[in-house]
Amino acid sequence: MKNLLLISLFTFFAVSLNAQSDILPPNLIAPENGALDQMPDGTLNWYASSGVGQVSYTVEIADNMQFDNSESFITSITEFKNSNLRFGEEYFWRISATDDEETSDWSDVYSFTVFDRLLLDEPLNGAADQMPNVILSREEDAGDNDYSGFNLMQCQIDTSYGLATENIDLTEEDLNSIYFVDEASGWTAGEAGTILAYDAGTWSIETIYSGATNEDTTITAGLNSIHNGHIVGNEGTYLYYDVDMWKVEPIELESDNKEVAITEDLNSVFALSSEDIWAVGPEAYIIHKGTSEYWELSDSNLEEPEDMNAVFFLDENNGWAVGAGDSILYYNGTEWTAQYNPAERDLYDVYFTDMNHGWAVGKLGTLVFYDGTQWNELESNTGSDLYSIFMLNSEEGWAVGKNGTLVNFDGSFWYVTASSSLNDLNSTYAVNANNIWIAGEEGTVITKIGEGFDSELMEVYTTIGDSLNIHMNNLLFGTRYYWRFRAIHDEDTSSWSSARYFSTIGVVELVSPDQNATNQDPDIELEWLEITGIDSYIYQVCNDPDFIFPCITGFVDSSSIIIPDLFFGDTYYWRVSAAHYADTTDWSEVRSFEVINTVLLDSPSDGASSVALLPTLSWEAINGADEYEVRWSNEDNSYLDTAFVNTTSFLMFKPLEYAEDYFWKVRAIKNGDTTDWSDTWQFYTGPTSIGDISFNDHNISIFPNPTNGQLTIEINSFETTQIDVSIIDLMGKVAKEQSFTIDQGLSKNLMQLDELNKGIYLIKLQSGNDVYTKKLIVD
C-alpha cells in the first residue's frame, strides 16, 4: 500500500509539472478583426504568452483562411511589421508561441484589408479658377491610419474623362428619371411635363398625346419616374408608350362601382409588364394595375404611413418599396410587410439583381445592402444625399445624388468619383458597362464616352511616397482637368483613386480703375488680380475700343502697371492677359476710363468770406502733372495775375485789397498738354476780427512805416487774446516771428527788426483764423 501510494503521488506531481509548462496561444490585439484601410507595412500586435525559458512567436499570414501559400516569420517580440502587402487585398493572420519545451496552438484567426485607393484632398471636386501651377494633394490618412508603406506616388492628369455632359440645350427643367431600352433608344422625364427622347445619338423633345383622343396635349405636372414604357408624376399623372408615342390617361380606381380618378402625387413606377404595374407615393400610397382596366389600392400595412419614394420588383412575388422615416416594405405576392432599415434614415431608391443582392440609397449618403436575410448598412464614402442607384450585376453599379455626387461599386468597395457636373443628379441607368446614363438638375444629361485619361495631353507625374502633393506647372488656361493618384511599392500598385476635376482660370480679372471711371490721373495705375504660375502679363491701353491704333502694349510680371503721360480729357480702353510658355489666357474684359480734364479746387471754398489778404490757394493733386497754372483777379479785372507752381497750393506773395471780391482758377500742365481751366471760385477779403473788435486799419496801427529797426504795434481790443506776428519777404519766406498777449483795451507792443535787410516786407498779424496783413518797409 505504501508503494502504491508513493507511485500515485509521484504520478500526480509529474502530471502537475507537465500541465504548468503548457504554453498558451497569444491573444491578438491589432489590427482588429475585419479592420479596413490598413497599410501595406502595417504592424501586427499581440499579448505576450508565458512559457518556460525564452518565448518566441511564429507569425503566419496568408490571403485565405486556409493559409494556403502562407508566409511565416519568427520573432522574439510581440509585434511584427509587414512590408509590401498587396493593395486592396484581404489578409488572414495568426500567431503561435514557442518556449524551451513546446509550441502552443495557433491563436484565433484575424483578418484585415489593405487600402485600395488613396483619398484625395484638394482641390475639391469641381473647383473653378485654379491656377496653372495648382497643387494637387492627397489626404494624410485613411480613417485612423496614416498612409505609409509605399515608396512612390503617381498623379495622372488629363483633359479627357470617361463621363461627359451631353450638350442637349433642349430644356432647363430638372430631369428626374432616365430609362433606356438599348444603346440606341431611351427617354428622360422631368419637371413641367418634360420628356426627351434619345434616338441613335440625337435627343429631341417628345410630343404628348391624349390617350382618349390621340390628339396633341400639354401637361404641366412634374414627371417623377419612368420605367419600361410607363411614366408617373404629380397630381396622379400617368403616361404610357404606345407604339411610337407617349399618351396620357387618368389613373382610375373602381370604388362602389364608380370610376374615381386619383390626384395623389406619384413618386415612382415599376412595370414588370403592361399588365403588372406598380406605383407609389406619399403616405405609403401604393397602387397596382393588373389585367383589369382599373388600378387597385394596395395596403402597406404600416401603422404610421410614410412617404414612399421608390418601388422595385424582381418578379410578381418579390418587390420592395422604400421611403421616408427608414421605411422598407417587402411584397411577397400577397401582402406588404415592413423590413428593418439599420441606417434609420430616409431612402430614395432601391435596386435588386437577385433575391440575395439588393441595395437602397438615401439621405446623407445612406447605403444599405440586402443579403437574402437582412439589410446591412454599408460605407458609401460620401455624406451627400444619394437619389438613385442602378446595378448591372452584383459586382458593378452606380449611385448618384446631390451636387453631382457619383459613387461606383467595383465588386468590393463603393468609392466616389467625378461625374463631370456639380448639379444634383436624380437618376441613373446603364445598358451595359460602357453605356451609362445620368439625368439631373437643369436639364443635365451625362453619359459614358470611354475610359478617359487617354488624350494626347495626358501626363503622369511621379514623386516619393511620403509626399502629400504634386505641384503642376503650365497647365492650359480655361481648361477642365481630371486627376487622380495612386500608390506604388516594390511588389504592387494600388488602384487609381477616385477621379476629381477642376477648371483652370481662363481670364484675368481687372480690379481698378472701375469701368467708365472718370477724373483719372494721366499717370494712371492699372491693377488686376494676381495669377500665379505665369511668366508675365500682357497689357494694352488704347484710344480705340477695338485695340487697332494707337495702342500701348507691354509686358509686366506684377499685377499692376503705371501708364504715364496720357492726355488730359482723353478716353482710354484697357485689357490684360496672362501667359506662360505653353499658353495665353483670353483677353480680360475691356474697361474704359477718362483722364481728368480739370483741376478740382479745395480752398478757400467758393463764396468764402473773411479771407486773408495773403491767402493760400489749394487744390487736389493730379498724379503726373508737371506744374499748375494759377490765375486770379478782382471783380472788374483791374487786377489780374498768374503764377506757376509744382505743388498743390499757392501762397499769395502780394497782399490783396481789403473788403474786395476775388476770383481764381487753376489748370494742370504736363508735357505741353493742359487740362481745361477749373471752375472759377470767388472769395471775399474782409472783414475779419480779433475778439469782438473789427480787425482793420481803424483798430490796428503799425509805426513807424518805413522803419529803421524798431516797430510799434498798437491794437485796440475788447478782450484779452494772443497775436502771432510774422514778417514775410516778397519771396514768401518768413524772416521773423513773434507772439504777444494783448489785454482788453489799447495795447502797445514793440518788435525789434535790426537784423532784417532793407527792403519791402509784409507784416501779418493772426489770431486764430483771423488774419491782418500790411506792407512794411525796412529802411
Describe the secondary structure blueprint for this structure.
Layout: H1 2-20, E1 28-30, E2 35-38, E3 43-46, E4 56-62, E5 71-75, E6 79-81, E7 90-98, E8 110-114, E9 127-130, E10 135-137, E11 141-142, E12 145-146, E13 152-158, E14 161-165, E15 175-182, E16 185-190, E17 195-199, E18 202-205, E19 208-210, E20 216-217, E21 223-227, E22 230-233, E23 238-242, E24 245-248, E25 252-255, E26 258-261, E27 268-273, E28 276-281, E29 285-289, E30 295-297, E31 308-315, E32 318-323, E33 328-331, E34 336-338, E35 347-354, E36 357-362, E37 367-370, E38 375-377, E39 386-393, E40 396-401, E41 406-409, E42 414-417, E43 425-432, E44 435-440, E45 445-452, E46 459-464, E47 469-471, E48 480-489, E49 492-493, E50 500-504, E51 510-512, E52 517-520, E53 524-528, E54 536-542, E55 551-556, E56 560-563, E57 571-580, E58 583-584, E59 591-595, E60 601-603, E61 616-619, E62 627-634, E63 640-645, E64 649-651, E65 661-670, E66 673-674, E67 681-684, E68 689-690, E69 693-694, E70 700-703, E71 710-717, E72 721-729, E73 734-742, E74 745-752, E75 759-767, E76 770-778
Parallel strand pairs: 2-8, 9-50, 19-24, 52-59
Antiparallel strand pairs: 1-3, 3-6, 4-5, 4-7, 7-8, 10-47, 11-12, 13-46, 13-48, 14-45, 15-16, 16-17, 17-18, 19-20, 21-22, 22-23, 23-24, 25-26, 27-28, 28-29, 29-30, 31-32, 32-33, 33-34, 35-36, 36-37, 37-38, 39-40, 40-41, 41-42, 43-44, 44-45, 48-49, 48-50, 51-53, 53-56, 54-55, 54-57, 57-58, 57-59, ...
